[in-house]
Specification:
Elements lengths: L4 E6 L8 H10 L3 E6 L9 H8 L15 H7 L3 E7 L1 H8 L6 H8 L4 E5 L3 H5 L1 H12 L3 E2 L3 E4 L5 E5 L3 H14 L10 E7 L3 E4 L2 E3 L6 H12 L3 E7 L9 E6 L2 H11 L5 E4 L6 E3 L20 E3 L3 H7 L7 E8 L3 H12 L3 E6 L10 E8 L4 E8 H16 L1
Parallel strand pairs: 1-2, 1-3, 3-4, 4-5, 8-11, 8-13, 11-12, 13-16, 16-17
Antiparallel strand pairs: 6-7, 9-10, 14-15, 17-18, 18-19
């Protein structure tokens, strides 16, 4: 089997050094990588480094090996082009079809999936010109990952940091796995909730659940790899941020509701995969509740939390918005799932059986996707990434 051919484009940002780690992950996992750095990128990492790490000469000049027509052939022969870091200048050129060096020529001739991993200062990322260029690239089918938040050059912090190389690699791996189908969510905004809410009883105790957030994070990561702009509402999940995903952290059900109602305003798809507490303590005790010998603790009164899924389903923020719910059941799984689908009013409900050695905290999952139109799709036990892709397959078919 021929090794996947990947072009790693590197533009001139300080984050260019991080592309060395991405290159190492690509080569060590069996990919044949051609590095195409811009002239500015070579000021940060030299040609010898790229050649040593890739095991191949770095392609730096349009006028080298002219008989091989490198400005055409490199893009034509690739299975994937990933640009990391992608500067504001590089994306502006790509959006406007400029081709003044080997990398921009490669982008024009590529007929494979293209992934941009932006890195720049916050003000540059948020500038209307950059946002319009990003929108143009996404509209044409390119996958533009959202930058991460964190430390930038110097003392600055904010949104604009290159996503971690490990997460960029995972995004590339998912894109290559899907081939020509990789971009079926391009131009869509999806909102995914993940993890489990916690309802505080006192400063050290809470009512919670066993959800790790792995399934929701898999849904967010696969959606980003399929071209979507993704907002992930993360409830107490201790997992690395997926590359290209805008992560909003929440803790309680009320916080999740507020964040969800804000995020879904312009969303095409809403997937509520988080395990949301049905109840919360009626009273929060400001000091730690003490144990007193010989005295039984007072009963904990509970009040009902809002039903976020039902609320979003009943009041769609925009016409045609698709809403997907999750149901964790311990018995009568399908019967309870069908009843919940009707009660919640969503378009799809992913029903899975939970319990000891099932679903929670594991890397695998099995489920049945129930649809409001009566369709029923059984997804066998396997990696949670596979279940995520199966859910997005159902969503993408309905969006079409």
């Amino acid at each position: 089997m021929t090794a996947p051919r990947v072009v790693l484009g590197v533009s001139g940002g300080i984050a260019a050094y991080k592309a060395c780690e991405l290159l190492r992950r690509l080569t060590e996992s069996g990919h044949q990588v051609t590095v195409v750095p811009t002239a500015a990128a070579l000021h940060f990492v030299g040609e010898a480094t790229w050649a040593a790490l890739s095991g191949r000469p770095a392609a730096t000049e349009t006028w080298e090996s002219v008989h091989e027509v490198p400005h055409v052939r490199i893009g034509q022969n690739a299975d994937l082009v990933v640009v990391a870091p992608a500067t504001a200048d590089l994306m502006a050129k790509a959006a406007h079809g400029l081709a003044d060096d080997l990398l921009t020529n490669t982008l024009l001739t590529a007929r494979c999936p293209v992934v941009f991993a932006p890195a720049m200062h916050t003000e540059m990322w948020e500038h209307p010109a950059t946002q319009e260029n990003v929108a143009t690239l996404r509209r044409r089918g390119a996958i533009v990952l959202d930058p991460a938040e964190g430390r930038l050059t110097g003392k600055d912090t904010g949104k604009g940091r290159l996503p971690e190389p490990s997460e960029i690699f995972e995004a590339c791996r998912r894109v290559l796995a899907r081939g020509d189908l990789a971009q079926d969510l391009a131009g869509r905004h999806v909102v995914v909730s993940a993890g489990g809410t916690r309802e505080p009883l006192d400063p050290v105790r809470f009512l919670g659940n066993r959800s790790s957030g792995k399934q929701g994070y898999a849904l967010a990561a696969t959606a980003a790899a399929r071209g979507a702009r993704v907002t992930l509402l993360s409830a107490n999940a201790e997992l690395p941020d997926p590359a290209g995903v805008d992560v909003v952290r929440v803790s309680t059900a009320l916080q999740l509701r507020d964040a969800a109602l804000k995020a879904v305003v312009d969303a095409d798809v809403v997937v509520m995969a988080a395990a949301v507490a049905d109840f919360r303590p009626a009273e929060y005790v400001t000091g730690k509740i003490k144990k007193v010998d010989g005295v039984d603790p007072a009963p904990v009164a509970l009040v009902r939390n809002p039903d976020i899924l039902a609320e979003i389903s009943a009041h769609r923020a925009r016409p045609g918005q698709l809403v997907v719910g999750f149901a964790a059941e311990t018995d009568d799984v399908l019967a309870n799932g069908r009843a919940k689908l009707a009660r919640k009013g969503c378009d799809l409900l992913v029903v899975n059986e939970v319990g000891d050695s099932k679903a929670f905290g594991l890397d695998t999952n099995a489920a049945v996707v129930l649809a409001a139109d009566g369709a029923e799709v059984h997804i066998p036990d396997g990696p949670k990434e596979n279940l995520a892709d199966a859910v997005w397959d159902q969503v993408a078919a309905r969006l079409r």
